[in-house]
Amino acid sequence: MTKMSRRFFKGMIYAFLIFLLMLSVVPFYLVMINASHSSFDIVTKLNLWLGDALAENYRTMQTHVNIWRGFANSLLISASYTLLTGYFGAFVAYGFAKFDFRGKKMLYGIVLASMMIPSQVSIIGFYQLNLKLHLLNTYWPFILPGIASASTVFFMRGIITQSIPDSMIEAARVEGCGELRIFNRLVYPCVLPGIVTMCIFNFVASWNSYIGPLIIVSDSRKYTMPVMISMIKGLYLTNYGAMYLAIAISVVPIIIVFCILSKYIVNGMTAGADK
Amino acid sequence: MRQRKGRRHTVSKSRYGYFFIAPFFIVFAIFSLYPILYTIFLSFQSWDGLGPVNSVGVKNYERLLKDEVFYQSLWNTFRMWMMNFIPQILTALVLSAVFTFHRIRGMRFFRAAFYLPNLITAASVGLLFNLLFDGDKSAMNHILTKIGLLEEPFAFFNSMVFASGLVSYIQWWMWFGYTTVIVMAGITTVDSGIYDAAMVDGATRTQTYVKITLPMIRPTLIYLSITSIIGGMQLFDVPATLTNSLGDPRKSILTTAMYLYNQGFRNHNYGYASTVSAGLFVIIAILSALCMSALQKKEREGQ
What is the spatial distance between Cα A248 and Cα B82, in angstroms, rounded to a whole number? Predict the structure, then answer.
């Protein structure tokens, strides 16, 4: 290729990348901008810069629904779920990585297979189960399954196998450490960085889950963020500014977390896919 | 001697293995296995959620096989999946080729920005695109009339083609960054010495990518296809929040997951909703198997 055509080619590549960048980012930009405009402004013209109706939109939004309650509910669920996935993911992975027992291969096969189960297909049974256990309108159905996070077990098993030498565990046993103590004091702290990576994904997945809370929670004070957002269209009718603001509030925390952690997120995905 | 002692040591501790893996299986049995088995059980019953559960034999299945809405929902779901997955994998392959073979300034930034839509709550995305397109005064109608692409506002959500296309677009938009990251992860596992050898033999970059890289990352592509079809056939959040959750206009974006949700939680036909679930499960299993065998067959032919 000549120098000229190579330069042209490179220019085309950048144009393509910037086009995709616009597609990815512009919808979020429009949300932020429209959140600060009055409904009248939004329907009469195209807004490309911040308006002055943010405070008013906020008041309108809060008179209809307390978005911060949804925020707090989602945070409570996601944080609890994530902590369970982190601890028990490593706990179960340790059992598979460092012990030999009968049926291990088959049991691990079940763990792997459970990742392929289409979960939304069993929502009727899931609803039934929680009805029988009197767990409707509680958060347990979303928190407890964190103990059985197959992808976390899969990921942590690889890390534990690689980074914890058998001799280390043996040494602790010789010193008279109990098995649980070995895990809590020795193994868990060693693999904490891997756990954190996995926890980021688990948190996002839990924060975004929609159909579960939609069927289990009917008490509007216990709504999670996604459920609240999906109900908003009916509540605000034509208060576009307030609706955009509500979306912005549901989206901004994730964007902030992403900006801080993006390095870990993309690297973590890569590490997971390698294995 | 010491080694033997050590081995005996491990064996005597082996029962602790069960102790460590027990939490997973207890919770899995309660929250995953039981719901599946109960859904299968209910698919042979009739139940309105309050009264007694009555066995109806295979009646629900007979109804399912004649249910046109079920077939339409399957076709909708599959069509919207295909229309998003093919562009998605093509975009990811092109992007990962660009990122692998060219020095792109800000590569990490681009990759992270493309991945961003994947992190956002699908319910928010649905409402967001609803607001952007719904009505004469929506943001998109403003933009398109201003730049002259449209003469007058277009009623986007009265068009079946547009609504279905928009769902595919949103799915593409949410997933192409993720797919790119995974494909690139697959590419990094390919030994880079192979490229040098190919280049020495006079292969162009494109040839190298198509003839060498793609076959070598086949496991990654199989993984992406299978997980995408399992997720895609259960599509619920975006189409349910994009319009009125009934799949309008004219059921064009009614997915099977939405249909089973509506049968169960709106109409309180929990028995029939379970039958729809079972039907969907079988379809997903068949499609995954087809997908896997198609990709593996190609692999055998290639060798």
Answer: 30
Chain A neighbors of B223, CB-CB under 8 A: 273
pLDDT of residue A56: 84
Q: Please tell me which residue of chain A has the smallest CA distance to B20.
A: A95
Q: Which residue has the higher pLDDT, A215 or B244?
A: A215
Same domain? For A176 and A269 the reply is no
Q: Answer whether A226 sits within 8 Å of B124, measured CB to CB.
A: yes
Residue A51 in domain: yes
pLDDT at A236: 66
- pLDDT given at position B135: 80
Closest A-chain CA to B266 = A215
Q: Could you count the other beta carbons within 10 Å of the beta carbon of residue B43? A: 25
Residue A139 and residue A254 in one domain:
no
- Residue identified by tokens 């493309």 is B114
Number of structural domains (chain A) is 2
Which pLDDT score, from 0 to 100, does residue B1 have?
38
* Cα–Cα dist A107/A64, whole Å: 50
The per-residue pLDDT for range A126-183, each reduced to its tens digit, is: 999 999 999 999 999 999 999 999 999 998 998 899 888 988 898 998 988 888 999 9
Q: Which residues of A touch B188 (CB under 8 A)?
A: 270, 274
Does residue A92 sit in the same domain as residue A213?
Answer: yes
A231: how many CB neighbours lie within 10 A of its CB? 19
Judging contacts by C-beta atoms under 8 Å, the chain A residues touching residue B278 are 121
Chain A touched by B47 (CB under 8 Å): no
Q: What ipTM, to 2 d.p.? A: 0.87
Q: Which domains can be identified in chain B, with CATH numbers?
A: 67-302 (1.10.3720.10)
Report if residue A164 sits inside a domain.
yes
**Angstrom distance (rounded) from CA A195 to CA A155:** 9
Q: What is the domain extent for residue A161?
A: 77-225
